[in-house]
Design goal:
CATH class of the largest domain: Mainly Alpha
Distance between the termini: 30 Å
Helix content: 55-70%
Structural class: alpha+beta
CATH superfamily of the largest domain: Butyryl-CoA Dehydrogenase, subunit A, domain 3
Number of domains: 4
CATH architecture of the largest domain: Up-down Bundle
Shape: globular
Order of helices and strands: HHHHHHHHEEEEEEEEHEEHHHHHHHHHHH
Largest sheet: 8 strands, mixed
Oligomer: single chain
CATH topology of the largest domain: Butyryl-CoA Dehydrogenase, subunit A, domain 3
Number of helices: 20
Radius of gyration: 24 Å
């Protein structure tokens, strides 16, 4: 076993905040195997040949078109990347399935349908199904012969999933459960063959069921008219005395929350993957347009304001991708560690995602907001043409907005990031107290400036270390001051979450570039060095702002002044010419004619 594998296995979820991380802890996209690169290219080619030429027909909800595309995707094996071979899948690792999500992710409504099918459509059955349920449903879902869907949300229970009103009652003979209720915003709902539906048994036992299309008492509403992802089937589901065979109960009675929440962990990471794919496409479209659109007798690509936009789109996309694959590899390593220890396949997969649930929530927030930023800037670069339906960026702009809402709103995911971290600390699963106390002690001491370290990456590593201290100091102060009241101070929690999310991504991009430099040399990674340094330069200010808002929200007097001084100390970054770095990043892409990182 390599040292890299050992390092990756030993880093638990949330530990990046309190432990020094090295490039050995980090998997980067530049390490894709030859097979993974082939799968990546296959995904890109499928979009180019099968999806992009017919996006208008997809958005018009042409009958039978999306199911046909899903089936074609299945014929290529792209629906079954991580499904075991015994069910017709390819049995590949978690990183490979993440690649598929990323490189199919820019396909607008098609991407939504496929992501729902391969995620919430199949995974509940894979992870929680009985052997008979898996043998019956998975081969059909893997091939694309059947499409999968998921019914959790109700008109009055969105983020509060456990507040569902749909009921299930066991018949006197014990052979069926009778479902009554309603589900809304059901992706693939209009054409799916099999649904995972959540209901309460006996009024309180939140439970999942497998429901097939055509079951008496199960009907659907008309297609929703949406702002974006218009080609994604979205309907309401209705259950009126709908009799479900008792053997279609999924998982354990009363344990439906385990299915709902564990599937969301994986879905959040994969949503980030799709967002990265969409953001990259927005960058490429903007580069092409900026090179050909002329104003004042020259291409608008020559203007500094446009170069700034192109570079910032690329920076955020690159950073999101760095954190995405760092986390995907951690999950993959955890799965293999548990499998090697004798854990059943399903338990190992679930535990891998649960271990890094904090990071999955952070990825979902960051990735969806990167995509929103990228498509917004793409429209701006296109100017008036960007507002026209004749240009694809207008569709990308509309389609992007949903990502900040589903798989848990970004507000919920920010709160979860902090909530899960603090709960792990209180349970002893994550040691935050020791490092937090060490930071407090450091604040009371005279700073140790030491001898200057001019080695490559020394300044960046020191900055990351200090930014982590800023998070620990601010979070520790909030916990000590507010105690049990903290959970009601959502504004402070959101500030703390934004600090942590920013630092996680800053460290991820630093480690990616450090590893890339080791692999390819400093000269070959010049553009990536500019990306990393520009992001870190901005991240220091962002952490300072989030921290100030948090501290001012719970501390005052001498305590507040001391913490603000500490925050200033921990978020101090060396001067850096971000303008010239962004110009170099943009120029490199303009010369290549595409995003080239």
């Amino acid at each position: 076993m390599s040292n890299e594998t050992i390092a990756q296995k030993n880093l638990k979820g949330g530990e990046w905040l309190v432990k020094e991380c090295t490039p050995a802890d980090t998997f980067i996209p530049e390490q894709f195997t030859e097979e993974q690169q082939m799968i990546r290219d296959m995904c890109a080619q499928f979009l180019d040949t099968e999806v992009f030429p017919i996006v208008d027909r997809i958005d018009a909800l042409e009958e039978g078109l999306m199911p046909t595309l899903v089936k074609k995707t299945g014929e290529l094996g792209l629906l079954s990347t991580s499904i075991p071979e015994e069910y017709g899948g390819l049995g590949k690792d978690f990183v490979t399935s993440t690649i598929v999500n990323e490189y199919l992710g820019s396909g607008h409504s098609y991407s939504v349908a496929v992501a729902a099918h391969t995620g919430i459509g199949m995974l509940p059955i894979l992870y929680f199904g009985t052997p008979a349920q898996k043998a019956h449903y998975l081969p059909k879902l893997v091939s694309g012969e059947w499409a999968g869907s998921y019914g959790l949300t109700e008109p009055n229970s969105g983020s509060d999933a456990l507040g569902a009103k749909t009921t299930a009652t066991l018949t006197p003979d014990g052979k069926h459960y009778v479902l009554n209720g309603q589900k809304c915003w059901i992706t693939n709902g209009g054409f799916a063959h099999v649904y995972t539906v959540f209901a309460k048994v006996d009024g309180d036992k939140f439970t999942a069921f497998i429901v097939e299309r055509g079951t008496p008492g199960f009907t659907q509403g008309p297609e929703e008219q949406k702002m974006g992802i218009k080609g994604s089937s979205t309907v309401q589901l209705y259950f009126q005395d709908c009799k479900i065979p008792a053997e279609n109960l999924l998982g354990e009675l009363g344990k439906g929350h385990k299915i709902a929440f564990n599937i969301l962990n994986i879905g959040r990471l994969k949503l980030c993957a799709a967002a990265v794919g969409g953001a990259r496409r927005a960058v490429n479209q903007s580069i092409s347009y900026a090179k050909t659109r002329e104003q004042f007798k020259q291409p608008i690509a020559n203007f500094g304001a446009i170069k700034h936009k192109l570079a910032e789109m690329a920076i955020r996309t690159y950073v999101a991708e760095a954190a995405l694959y760092r986390t995907a590899k951690w999950i993959d390593q955890k799965e293999h560690e548990l499998l090697d220890s004798g854990k059943p396949f399903e338990e190992a997969l679930l535990a891998g995602a649960e271990e890094y649930a904090i990071e999955c929530a952070a990825l979902k927030v960051f990735g969806s907001e990167v995509l929103d930023f990228a498509v917004d800037e793409a429209v701006q670069i296109h100017g008036g043409n960007g507002y026209s339906a004749e240009y694809p960026v207008s569709r990308a702009y509309r389609d992007s907005r949903i990502n900040r809402i589903y798989e848990g709103t970004n507000e919920i995911n920010r709160l979860l990031t902090l909530d899960m971290t603090l709960k792990r600390a209180m349970s002893g699963r994550l040691d935050l107290m020791g490092p937090a106390m060490a930071v407090q002690k450091e604040l009371m001491s005279v700073p140790d400036f030491g001898a200057p370290d001019d080695t490559l990456f020394a300044a960046e590593q020191k900055l990351i270390s200090n930014l982590k201290k800023a998070v620990l100091m601010t979070a520790g102060g909030a916990v000590q001051t507010l105690m049990m009241k903290l959970e009601k101070e959502q504004e402070v929690l959101m500030n703390l979450a934004d600090m942590a999310i920013t630092v996680f991504h800053a460290e991820s991009v630093l480690l990616r570039v450090m590893k890339l430099t080791d692999l390819q040399g400093e000269a070959a990674a010049a553009g990536q060095l500019d990306i990393m340094r520009t992001y870190l330069y901005d991240a220091a200010d962002q952490v300072n702002k989030f921290g100030k808002d948090a501290i001012n929200g719970f501390a005052s007097g001498d305590e507040g002044r001391m913490m603000l001084l500490g925050l200033k100390r921990f978020t101090k970054a060396d001067p850096f010419n971000a303008k010239e770095a962004r110009r170099r990043i943009a120029n490199q892409m303009l010369e290549a004619g595409q995003y080239c990182y």
